[in-house]
Amino acid sequence: MLSTKVRRKIAPSNGEIDNSADKQEQLLLSATICNGEDLGPFVRKAFASGKPETLLHNLRHFARSKESEIEEVCKAHYQDFILAVDDLRSLLSDVDSLKSSLSDSNSKLQSVAGPLLTSLDSYLEAQTVSHNVNLALSLIFSCIKLSELCSRSNYHLSRGNFYMALKCVDSIETEFLDKTPSSTLKRMLEKKIPEIRSHIERNVSKEFGDWLVEIRVVSRNLGQLAIGQASAARQREEDLRIKQRQAEEQSRLSLRDCVYALQEEEEDGLSGVMGDDGKDGYGNGGGNGLLGFDLTPLYRAYHIHQTLGLEDRFKQYYFENRKLQLTSDFQVSSMTPFLESHQTFFAQIAGFFIVEDQILRTGGDLISRMEVENLWETAVSKMCSVLEDQFSRMQTANHLLLIKDYVSLLGVTLRRYGYPVDALLDVLSKHRDKYHELLLSDCRKQIAEALAADKFEQMLMKKEYEYSMNVLSFQLQTSDIVPAFPYVAPFSTTVPDCCRIVRSFIEDSVSFMSYGGQLEFFDVVKKYLDRLLSEVLDEALLKLINASVHGVSQAMQVAANMAVLERACDFFFRHAAQLSGIPLRMAERGRRQFPLNNARDAAEEMLSGLLKQKVDGFMTLIENVNWMADEPTQSGNEYVNEVMIYLETLVSTAQQILPVPVLKRVMQDVLSHISEMIVGALLGDAVKRFNVNAIMGIDVDIRLLESFADNQAALLSEGDANQFKTALAEARQLINLLLSNHPENFLNPVIRERSYNTLDYRKVMTVSEKLRDPSDRLFGTFGSRGARQNPKKKSLDTLIKRLKDVS
């Protein structure tokens, strides 16, 4: 153990150093190494200065300086180690004895503890087996539950109960997936669970896609059904109004024996469309077996996507698809006339929003009210645009009316679901004037055709239904007593034909104005009715009178027609008021003058003119009057006898068809014309002179005419007969003046106003001068100055002189 060591010579710490700088660097290097710091700066500095040898030299010097310290430390510890080894060698005997003692004790312990260890091993083994069995049982129970859930999920999938299948899958994933003991089973579940969810999503999406296709057809049928029910309800209201008008009319006519009971039918509504909740736990919200209005696929898809956590995506998908469907519904085919396709177009949109309203009310948060309102605003804007475009192209009033009626029914239908329809009604109101202009144009053509077909003959009615259809339906009767048949009416076929045209105009006008958002529209209907009567019918009648009436019988028939049309106009305004829901007393308050005044006046003027022409033919016989007769005639002159025969024949014929007021006006005009003709004969150049006998003969003629007027008292009132006589006033007053004993009384304003108010002084002067003819025995030339003048003659001379002075 003692070995000789070669002692190294340790270099002195203060070796030879060239200069103090190297020594300082050496000290810094030594301190850095002792402190365990990084030598990188020294290395970089050495290489940077190009003197790596100095660094190596310093490192070697540091190593040599540490070798002596290491040797001293080893020497000190070597002595301690020798001493320790000696101490251990002294303990070997004690260790051997301890070892043998421990061996004996171990042998005894092994002999005693052997059976105990065997029992302990058996116990531990049994405990391990028990633990394993319990764990196996729990895992088996878990697997059984997992298998049951898997089986239940498969059952629900096979039955299409996707929600229950998803609940089973969720339970498997949350409760059993992480606890599954079989890695194979776990991998299988991790693979199949997403596949099952994807499968369910695909199937539900397919069902939803099929529903989207089906709901378009269902929406169209649903819209047609809803609008049809609105139409039926409107028809029931119209029927009730008709019954009410009939009751009011019967009450107005005081027919107390007629009793009317107005019974209102219950409104069916859309009870057949809106059904109860559907099966499978989903709210149907609108099931109808006939229409197939079933929301179950939609709600199932929505619920399944909620369960899958895809609610927002499905809501967006649903809204986008419905919006695309609505946009597709807006397409108007250019190949089919809008008149034929408008019902389908509007019914499709109506059904769409009925479905959306049901979904909004029963579908939870599937679609929001704001989204439905946005869709409705888009639909209203598009429908208004389509209506504007189609109305601008239409040139037939009936086409506008058909579309307007359907649009108003659409408005009534959708207003029940809370959709605002004012914009649609505004479009209808905007085209009110165009509709009525087209309607007026159609009526103008129909009236022209009806007037062109008139034969100016009284209408013959053989059956009571003809009387009811042509007279009673327009309240043209003058008596409540039904006449015997066959019945000859005082009017021609033109009257009922024109009445039917005007009544149809009123009904079409009221139909267009009704249900258009304007509650009181009688003034509008009345305005266009006035235009129809005053512009269309009046002008057509004027044209007929001026172009087609050539005889007295034709003129008389037209005048009779005008009198009947005057009664018909009263009916027209009452009918318009009734259809507009206006009380008759209010309608009567706003009545204006007879709108066919021009045609009536023209007809009467035409009749009067033709009668005057006839009378003029007879009045030419006045040329045969002997103006210088020796004796006055007692039976009237020839011309007046012919005129009397004609007038009596005329009155007997005219009173069969002409109303009394018309006959009175016409006859008064004719008699006034006869009076003018008599005065004109006295004033004319053909009569150079006449005597009192001739004037007395004219007086007889006028008396005959006055007697004719008095004879009409049975037909007319006494006052009307007196008015007839006033038509002869000018001739009567002139003859009275000529036969008067004091003609100069004409100059007295009071007497003139009372007895000669129709005479013109110039005419009186002219006629009086003719009576001064020298050959006249009574008013001849004066005799000698000393002869006594006739007082009457003197009075007449004074009159003539004074009249000349005035002129």
TrEMBL record:
Keywords: Cytoplasm, Exocytosis, Transport
Location of the Exocyst complex component EXOC6/Sec15 N-terminal domain: 58-227
Record's subcellular location: Cytoplasm, Cytosol
Entry-linked Pfam families: EXOC6_Sec15_N, Sec15_C
Domain Exocyst complex subunit EXOC6/Sec15 C-terminal: 424-770
Major subcellular site: cytoplasm
Presence of keyword Cytoplasm: yes
One GO BP: acceptance of pollen
Gene Ontology terms: cellular component: cytosol; exocyst; membrane
Superkingdom in the source lineage: Eukaryota
PANTHER family: EXOCYST COMPLEX COMPONENT SEC15B, SEC15
Family stated for the protein in its record: Belongs to the SEC15 family.
Function: Component of the exocyst complex involved in the docking of exocytic vesicles with fusion sites on the plasma membrane during regulated or polarized secretion. Involved in polarized cell growth and organ morphogenesis. During cytokinesis, involved in cell plate initiation, cell plate maturation and formation of new primary cell wall.
Protein known as: Exocyst complex component
